[in-house]
Specification:
The chain is of the alpha+beta class. It has nine helices and 16 strands.
C-alpha cells in the first residue's frame, strides 16, 4: 500500500534519515512540517532546519507554522487528509492534529521508553553511564512521550561512544524502525503496549530533560568515571566545560570533547593540572585524572591537546574549576 498519505514532522538531522528512507520506500509524503527559519550566527542569517533543507532538495511540500494550533494550519492538514502522521524530533502535537489521520500518529524516540522521556535521551543515557539504550516508536497522545509502544530496538552503548557516535547510529536504526512501524500500522495486525505495563514504579524512571549550561559544567570533585561520562554525553555539542585559572587569576573557558580517565592513588587536589606543555594535559578529579584528548579554547577551533599546547602555554600552577 504505497499510496498511503503521510505527513512528516521533524527538525534536526536525526529526522532527515527517516524522511529519506520513507521516500526511498516509495511512500507518498504529502507534506513536511518543520519549524520556521530562525536567525542565527553573528550575522543573524536565517537558518533552515536540516529537515527543511532535505525536503527542499526533494521538492516536497513544506509547511512551517508558528503555531501548530493555528486554524489555517489545521485546515491545511485536514485538506491533505493524511493516513499517518509521523513525528521525529519535533515538538508536542496538539490533540486536534492527532485526531486527523485515518490510521494514526506515531513518534520515534531515542530511548527504550518509558525510560528517558524528554528532550535529550541520547545525552542523558551516556551521562548516566548506561551500557544499553534503544529506540521506540509509540502512538501519540496528549502527554509527552507517554503513548502506547509500537516497536522497540535495543542498542548497546560501547565505552568508546560519545553522544555524536550514538546519534549517528540511531539515525540509521531509527529510520529502519520507522519503516517497520509504517508497515505494521498498514497491516492492522499489531498490539500496542501501555508504558505502565513496562514500569509500574515511576520512581525508577530516569528523565532526559533539555540540556542547560549547568549540566555542562564539570565538577572536578566528582569521580573520574562520572566526569568521563559527562564529557562523552555532551560531545560534540554542546560540550562539557571547565575554566582554566592561571597563576595571575586570568580565566580561560575550555570545552572538553574527548578524554581518557585513569584511576590514581596520587593525592592531588581536584582541579589540579599536570602537563609537560608538549603532549599531555591532565586534570585531577577525586580518585584519578582525566587525560584530555580533544578540546576547544573559547574563541578558537576544536583541536587535539598537543596542538593546543603548541600555541597556549599552560603550567602546572594552573587549576581547573
Amino acid at each position: 500500500m504505497k499510496d498511503v498519505r503521510i505527513v512528516f514532522m521533524g527538525t534536526p538531522e536525526i529526522a532527515v534519515e527517516s524522511l529519506r528512507q520513507i521516500l526511498q520506500a516509495n511512500y507518498t509524503v504529502e507534506a513536511v512540517v518543520t519549524p520556521p527559519d530562525k536567525p542565527s550566527g553573528r550575522g543573524l542569517h536565517l537558518h533552515e532546519s536540516a529537515v527543511k533543507q532535505f525536503a527542499s532538495s526533494q521538492h516536497l511540500n513544506i509547511l512551517q507554522p508558528e503555531n501548530l494550533s493555528d486554524e489555517s494550519f489545521i485546515a491545511t492538514i485536514k485538506d491533505i487528509n493524511p493516513d499517518i502522521i509521523i513525528v521525529v524530533a519535533f515538538r508536542k502535537i496538539p490533540d486536534r492534529l492527532l485526531d486527523l489521520p485515518k490510521i494514526g500518529s506515531f513518534n520515534l524516540h531515542a530511548s527504550l521508553l518509558p525510560q528517558y522521556r524528554g528532550a535529550a535521551p541520547i545525552n542523558w543515557a551516556i551521562m548516566n553511564g548506561e551500557t544499553q539504550t534503544g529506540l521506540s516508536t509509540f502512538l501519540l497522545n496528549n502527554k509527552i512521550d507517554e503513548g502506547k509502544i509500537l516497536l522497540q530496538k535495543i542498542m548497546d552503548i560501547m565505552p568508546s561512544y560519545n553522544a555524536s557516535d550514538l546519534y549517528n547510529l540511531m539515525k540509521v536504526d531509527g529510520a529502519i524502525l520507522v519503516l517497520d512501524t509504517i508497515k505494521m500500522l498498514l497491516s492492522g495486525n499489531y498490539n500496542s503496549i501501555d508504558q505502565q505495563n513496562l514500569s509500574t514504579d515511576s520512581l525508577l524512571l530516569k528523565k532526559a530533560p533539555k540540556i542547560f549550561k549547568d549540566h555542562c559544567r564539570i565538577d572536578w570533585n566528582n569521580v573520574v568515571v562520572k566526569i568521563q561520562n559527562q564529557i562523552r554525553g555532551l560531545s560534540y555539542t554542546p560540550g562539557a566545560v571547565t575554566e582554566l585559572i592561571s597563576p595571575n587569576e586570568t580565566t580561560f573557558s575550555l570545552k572538553i570533547f574527548r578524554s581518557e580517565f585513569h584511576f590514581s592513588d596520587k593525592k592531588e587536589r581536584p582541579g589540579s593540572i599536570e602537563t609537560d606543555n608538549h603532549k599531555h594535559l591532565r586534570i585531577f578529579a577525586s580518585n584519578g585524572f582525566l587525560d584530555l584528548k580533544e578540546v576547544q579554547l573559547s574563541g578558537k577551533k576544536m583541536m587535539k591537546v598537543d596542538d593546543l599546547l603548541r600555541g597556549f602555554k599552560i603550567s602546572n600552577q594552573f587549576i581547573a574549576r
